[in-house]
């Protein structure tokens, strides 16, 4: 029988396998009845459900900040946070619990810290690893930063990531991954109690300063030949047009209908920066692996024609153009190993422009390989751009 008391605003049930810690109590803290010991505020580790199946991650107590409905002078957990107390002398759970790892503690020891330099490797931050893996290649190594980085270097990767106390992930490029405070990468490495190795859903990222950056024309969205790696499908992304000096980021809001052939005919759409156009949908583009879709595959890409806006069509029986790819970002402020991917067509990322379309009320349309003497735009007024594929957490909303 479980002997845990959960004080949560949401029906979340999480973590076990934590060591009791003494937390100073203040007004606002959960009321813990006598006979129970506060374990603290925890973040959901993998997903939230009603079974105890995954170790959670100790979190800052400030996240458990939602007042209890029955006693508003005290708190009852928070968004994505559960406050846990343990009954003194309770019987530990046994077979119903299947943690993904039992060898690591969720509670950082007071002496462990994030190593910022390991040989030629530099720590780059604590990143969320949720949904599709942000680094793709997992290896089994000793649970230390030294062992993982050495393994990634030997396997030809410039990036290494440690997660959940010692999982070792390697890759050549990090396209997405939201950065979080270092304090969230708080799990002690399984094989070295002095260092920290990420946490649940949190990857401590390292970059090898002597590694060669990935090829500028690496198709991140297609499956590398001969590997069992899941292709990266860049789904639910927005598109941001950045001028090629990297200055202005202008959001492409959606695909604007340009031709509709009757009620039952196909609809043709193009990409524009048009706030009030129909089908504005800021983060519903997909590149996977060499085709491009809009609105969760409701429209598929057609062959782009020189000088014209790329077209998408709403009928699935059209054959999608398969020359699209997501390439590393050539102007990433975070360097050649990390950054939002950019959209390539037929191996080029630098053929896109944003042009004022004079036949469409001056709408700003994306144009492929803009030409002089076009009836619908003036080439000298077009801005050469890259099209960045950006996850919703980083969209500028301009
Ligand atoms: C300009 O707008 C028209 C009308 O919406 C559209 O057909 C055309 O594809 C747009 N882009 C260019 C480059 O002409």
Automatic annotation (TrEMBL):
Membrane topology type: Single-pass membrane protein
Ranges of Low complexity composition bias in the record: 92-111
InterPro entries cross-referenced by the UniProt entry: Kremen_rcpt, WSC_carb-bd
Segments of this protein annotated with the region Disordered: 88-111
Signal peptide stretch: 1-20
Keyword list, A-Z: Glycoprotein, Membrane, Signal, Transmembrane, Transmembrane helix
Compartment(s) of residence: Membrane
This protein's GO CC annotations: plasma membrane
Keyword GTP-binding: no
Domain WSC: 120-209
Name of this chain's protein: WSC domain-containing protein
């Amino acid at each position: 029988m479980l002997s845990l008391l959960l004080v949560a605003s949401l029906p979340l049930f999480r973590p076990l396998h934590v060591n009791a810690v003494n937390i100073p109590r203040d007004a606002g803290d959960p009321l813990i009845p006598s006979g129970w010991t506060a374990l603290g505020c925890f973040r959901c580790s993998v997903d939230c459900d009603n079974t105890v199946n995954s170790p959670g991650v100790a979190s800052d107590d400030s996240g458990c900040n939602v007042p209890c409905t029955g006693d508003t002078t005290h708190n009852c957990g928070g968004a994505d946070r559960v406050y846990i107390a343990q009954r003194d002398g309770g019987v530990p759970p046994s077979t119903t619990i299947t943690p993904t790892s039992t060898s690591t503690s969720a509670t950082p020891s007071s002496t462990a810290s994030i190593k910022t330099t390991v040989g030629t490797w530099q720590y780059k931050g604590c990143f969320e690893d949720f949904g599709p893996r942000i680094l793709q290649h997992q290896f089994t190594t000793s649970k230390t930063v030294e062992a993982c980085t050495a393994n990634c270097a030997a396997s030809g990767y410039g990036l290494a990531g440690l997660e959940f106390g010692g999982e070792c992930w390697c890759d050549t490029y990090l396209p997405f991954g939201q950065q979080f405070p270092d304090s969230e990468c708080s799990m002690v490495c399984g094989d070295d109690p002095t260092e920290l190795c990420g946490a649940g859903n949190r990857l401590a990222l390292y970059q090898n300063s002597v590694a060669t950056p990935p090829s500028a024309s690496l198709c991140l969205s297609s499956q590398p030949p001969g590997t069992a790696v899941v292709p990266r499908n860049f789904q639910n992304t927005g598109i941001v047009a950045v001028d090629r000096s990297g200055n202005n980021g202008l959001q492409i809001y959606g695909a604007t209908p340009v031709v509709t052939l009757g009620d039952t005919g196909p609809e043709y759409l193009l990409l524009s920066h048009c706030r009030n156009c129909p089908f504005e949908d800021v983060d519903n583009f997909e590149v996977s692996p060499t085709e491009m879709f809009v609105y969760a595959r409701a429209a598929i890409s057609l062959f782009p024609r020189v000088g014209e806006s790329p077209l998408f069509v709403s009928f699935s029986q059209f054959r999608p153009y398969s020359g699209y790819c997501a390439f590393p970002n050539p102007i990433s402020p975070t360097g050649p190993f990390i950054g939002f991917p950019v959209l390539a067509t037929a191996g080029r990322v630098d053929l896109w422009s944003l042009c004022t379309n004079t036949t469409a009320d001056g709408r700003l349309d994306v144009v492929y390989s803009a030409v002089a003497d076009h009836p619908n735009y003036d080439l000298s007024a077009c801005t050469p751009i890259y099209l960045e594929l950006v996850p919703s957490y980083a969209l500028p909303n301009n």
